[in-house]
Amino acid sequence: MMALGKGADMQDKRHEFMQRVEAKRDGLIALTQALIQIPTLNPPGEYYHDICAYLEKHLRGLGFECEMIRAYDTPGDSPRHPRWNIVARREGGRPGECVHFNSHIDVVEVGQGWSMAPFGGELKDGRIYGRGACDMKGGLAASIIAVEAFLEVWPAFSGAIEISGTADEESGGFGGVAYLSEQGYFSPSRVQHVIIPEPLHKDRVCLGHRGVFWAEIETRGHIAHGSMPFLGDCAVRHMGAVIAEMETSLFPALAKKRTDMPVVPKGARQSTMNINSIHGGQDEPPPGFTGLPSPVVPDRCKMIIDRRFLLEEDIADVEAEIRALLEKLKSKRMGFAYEMHPIHSVNPVMTAKDAPVVTTVAAAIEAVLDKKPQFVVSPGTYDQKHIDRIGRMKNCIAYGPGILDLAHQPDEYIEVEDMIDSAKVMGLALADLLTGTSAANLGE
Q: 211-283+294-346, what's its fold?
């Protein structure tokens, strides 16, 4: 009888938690709007301290100890635009494991085409609009509300809860999660479970991401008068040959490289490469200049490539594949000279489907949404790369509200109902991990 009574008590608490999340709807909306209204644009990195201070005040009110951490001397850090982060921690009443919710605080440029105020946080028809609403201030707000409701129902939990707001994810995360990982904040001895509330849909568990290899390719030529191009050697034409070879051999070869990783969308279940930028010849004239360019044969041309690769590929082979293409051109094209400089690389990451945080969140999704979750992998990288590579913490996923396709778009928005559901999922996952109250038994 005691066991039955204990089971009934757990069930009552889980239902109480769900009701408390529903009751916090207005608070969730207000918190999301307040976060959107702090325009944390990156680049250059505006208002990082302001949003961290706002979060510090809010989280101290929930009993969290907070650290404001500046990532000195990381890319972009300067006296005018310091790279600030916040890490908040609340200890439970008994020893146990730590669950960490990590959200980035920066947002990308606004861009054109908005019909809503980009930093207004307007609520309309159940949606909150604004830059960063989806990616990922809505997820940050949902995780905080989940923790608020959890603490009201289970104040004497085991272990610890951490919430972080970190800088620069949109530009690589080096002033945020990478820096904190180097300082030990994501070491397995400190943190045992990490949930990143990126907008991957509320019914999906994101296990990781593809790899990335960025490089600059430069072709060289010889400058001459534009009226006598035969006296020079056009670097742009050499780059044109590079692109032609890519079209003929590289892109078809990449399309044949397939993966067992559950990458979404399905078009990303192959290797891909984007020509990110290309520039040859004279520098762009300054704003307001109305004259003509001078007639010269360009002696240099630069291209940035963005190669995304699969768990089945090795990064050394990815780089060698590009160099082989360039060497082939060098052997058959007169005057062809090149340099290639790798500028950024990240290995693919995929957490095992039977990892504790995966199975726990999956069970919570099924309990809240009454459907089995989809396990996915992101086509692009996010801060899990640093937690895995630097922090050596493998028990990490991305899970959060929002539609990824809306990220970086005009009129970006987050559905309030999606945030409510995701908050329930995250809170039930906390209950499972820190109290032993399994979400899988919610309906029993």
A: Alpha-Beta Plaits (3.30.70)
